């Protein structure tokens, strides 16, 4: 058979098996987690009904679903509240983290002076800082926002700083030879080099902003944030309304998943054409 | 008549390095008493073992590094020795492309830094891509290209501003031999078309003799020039030159000089 033959040659056994295996894996990637989910729900339901577990200890999945529908207006409003707090914190984390990172990389002095404090802010548990924020800041909303921001901004700061410093040495030299200004270096060389690092920081920060918002709602409470999902959850637990508690928990968890999915999508769209991390394995 | 078609002795002077020395922090003498006159149209190879200061010499010419003593003067500028941003093109050992930018945007870079809008230089960018045989890949990203093609983009970027001098720092050292031979031929073909002046750093005797009309042999510890060899074979040089007795003779001369260089250093 000549090389230029246009017919697809028949696959040998090994290649056919490999193709089959890849197809099975593609399907399993979606079906297996779905199956686990169904079995878990079923097990949960059976456990609650067969052992007659009282609803104030563990509500069954059907009761949770009932509550989710029954309390939908309240829960949806709470979702919007928590979502707004989370997104605002994330936006400020992106602005603050990226700007600080630029400042750190433009001036060694600024970095040396302030980086240790960024670390201290990061390693101190936010639960311990939140009550202070509540005392010193007049607006509880600002206190809650600051609380979520503190948690979210550090991964963006540290990743972007590393990214801005990870430019190719020879490209740096080339920019010097061509007489590039500081701004041109930042805009055309450092910023694109830092983009993959920034985006992986963003993925972490998205999750942390939600954690920060939840902690803020727990500690600072409805005074500051309105009735968000976390304060709804806390209140439901005081009232032994475990159906609503589980419904709120599921919504928080869904929100986290959504944030992660959106951040992953943004990252993929920004990088898929040129960055190694976005390459398909079969290249 | 373009300078590179004139005999070696009759070309106008472009750059003069006089008693240039570079001592690194810590006392290592990277370069001792280097004297080199570069004339317009020259294709000069700096040939030597690693540590002989050939890359240091290039960095001094780019101005990325200042000489400890001695002078580097550019012709036609009253000895002030200052060069404009358009006077140099540089090709490194790695292609050194920006992975996030398309081929045409990588080649456009020198103009972008000078603040020239793309629309004004589109023709120059496409022309130089055509010269290196990559006009079909202008919209590709670097990762879609082979090693040899990336190096062509890098060369196109160095040529696009029509610089007075092109510096190449072991540009083909990381490529396989077949690709390297191809790029050597193409580089000479490019020079036939645009008549550029080149300083080419290499540690390959064969490459230096094939490409250049002047081979500057250097020795290490301390880095210094020990011999200059004129390769008086006419351009254009083809594959036939690679197998000629003349080529073999020049290679032997360069090789002997290199042996003396490394012998002294040992």
Q: What do you see in this structure?
A:
The complex is a heterodimer of chains A (283) and B (266). Chain A is mainly alpha-helical and 283 residues long. Chain A has 2 domains: 9-52; 61-278, MetI-like (MetI-like fold, Orthogonal Bundle), CATH 1.10.3720.10. Chain A contains 11 helices and no strands. Chain A is flat. Chain B has one domain: P-loop containing nucleotide triphosphate hydrolases (Rossmann fold), CATH 3.40.50. In chain B, helix 5 (177-194) links the parallel strand 6 and strand 7 (198-202). Chain B has 266 residues and is an alpha/beta fold. In chain B, the strands form 2 sheets. A 6-stranded mixed beta sheet of chain B has the order 5-6-7-3-8-9, with helices on both faces. In chain B, strands 2-1-4 form a 3-stranded antiparallel beta sheet, with helices on one face. The interface between A and B is medium-sized, with 21 and 21 residues.
